[in-house]
């Protein structure tokens, strides 16, 4: 079912959707309170942190293509093993991303090997790459380097490599004034503040296109989210409500 049909079924008119738009002057600012979904606050021994930016992201479908062969009869020096090439590249993804720093992260999340038999040299490997960072330029530079390394590995091993980007979203910087307001409130309730990027996407990405936006993170146990083990303490939530309320009041009084 399309979104338009779902709107009709709910008694709405898709042709009038633009009439639901809020005028920019109707909203002064957007503040969002969320669990961190990561381990940084816990490792720093802090309940709260202020988000400086929401990571941009790129997602790609990648493929190494070599030549399948008999696992017992093809000598090692004559192989065009797609899985060996993919494994070498995956180590490059990890190492180069760590070397770049800057809160960049990269993940190979899926891997499919063909033909997928215990006694056959892999002829093709399909894998995904998810790469994220709080600034677009370093993110683009890392992606270009990783793709260049993949091509170099494939060329040296006499294979081919292809990649197709299927998802892209720009990094979203949080409003500097709202960051300062939140930081002041956090210092008031816990003594000091920490700024950090958000590795996950949030509603603030869309809202920041029209209004000043910022986010406050609260510590979560082990950085676990979207899982039954997700947990926050009542004490941390109390500090979060206190700091968030202070920030809202200051923005409202401005």
UniProtKB/TrEMBL annotation:
One annotated GO molecular function: metal ion binding
SUPFAM superfamilies, A to Z: Bacterial exopeptidase dimerisation domain, Zn-dependent exopeptidases
Annotated EC: 3.5.1.87
Cofactors (names): Mn(2+)
Metal-binding listed as a keyword: yes
Domain Peptidase M20 dimerisation: 55-151
InterPro entries, sorted: Amidase_Cbmase, Bact_exopeptidase_dim_dom, Peptidase_M20, Peptidase_M20_dimer
Keyword annotations of the record: Hydrolase, Manganese, Metal-binding
Origin superkingdom: Bacteria
Any Pfam family matching the protein: M20_dimer
Family classification: Belongs to the peptidase M20 family.
Subunit description: Homodimer.
Name of the featured protein: N-carbamoyl-L-amino acid hydrolase
């Amino acid at each position: 079912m399309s979104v338009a049909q779902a709107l009709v079924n709910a008694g709405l008119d898709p042709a009038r959707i633009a009439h639901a738009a809020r005028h920019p002057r109707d909203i002064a600012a957007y503040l969002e309170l969320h669990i961190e979904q990561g381990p940084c606050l816990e490792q720093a021994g802090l309940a709260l942190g202020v988000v400086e930016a929401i990571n941009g992201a790129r997602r790609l479908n990648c493929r190494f293509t070599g030549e399948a062969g008999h696992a017992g009869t093809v000598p090692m020096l004559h192989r065009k093993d797609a899985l060996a090439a993919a494994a070498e590249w995956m180590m490059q993804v990890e190492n180069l991303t760590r070397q770049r720093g800057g809160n960049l992260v990269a993940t190979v999340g899926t891997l499919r090997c063909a033909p997928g038999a215990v006694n056959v040299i892999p002829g093709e490997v399909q894998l995904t790459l998810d790469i994220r960072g709080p600034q677009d330029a370093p993110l683009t530079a890392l992606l270009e380097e990783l793709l260049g390394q993949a091509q170099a590995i494939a060329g040296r091993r006499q294979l081919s490599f292809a990649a197709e980007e299927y998802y892209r979203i720009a990094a979203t910087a949080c409003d500097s004034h709202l960051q300062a307001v939140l930081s002041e409130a956090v210092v008031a309730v816990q003594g000091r503040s920490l700024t950090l990027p958000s590795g996950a996407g949030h509603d603030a990405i869309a809202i920041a296109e029209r209004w000043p936006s910022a986010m406050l993170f609260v510590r979560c146990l082990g950085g676990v989210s979207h899982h039954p083990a997700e947990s926050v303490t009542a004490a941390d939530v109390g500090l979060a409500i206190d700091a968030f309320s202070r920030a809202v009041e200051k923005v409202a009084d401005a």
